[in-house]
Write a structure and sequence with these properties.
With 100 residues, this protein is an alpha+beta fold. The chain is 44% helix and 12% strand.
């Protein structure tokens, strides 16, 4: 039996932010800054979404010298569908963020 559960407010923010540019790879620290979430909240959310097949992940291929590669995230097809459903729910305003 599969349990249906609505995402938390923080998870909803992450999904909607990633949906603004679904084909673009984003890293967790950038999402933390844009959404005002702490790393202790952000990274468990990203891991859960990836485990559920809503995010694809990869490592940064060319890190600048002196900095380790970062883990990057973007929505999968099912992640885009869920984000669109969440954005269409009544009372859900459009999330406006600025990606660097």
């Amino acid at each position: 039996m599969t349990r249906e559960r609505r995402p938390s407010a923080q998870t909803r923010k992450v999904l909607l932010a990633l949906a603004e540019a679904p084909a673009v790879w984003r890293y967790g620290y950038e999402l933390c800054q844009v959404l005002g979430l702490k790393a202790g909240s952000m990274y468990p959310i990203l891991m859960r979404l990836a485990d559920r097949g809503l995010l694809e992940t990869t490592w940064e291929s060319e890190a600048p010298p002196g900095r380790p590669p970062r883990h990057l995230y973007r929505l999968t097809g099912p992640g885009r569908v869920l984000a669109a459903e969440l954005a269409a729910e009544p009372g859900q305003g459009v999330l406006v963020t600025r990606w660097a």
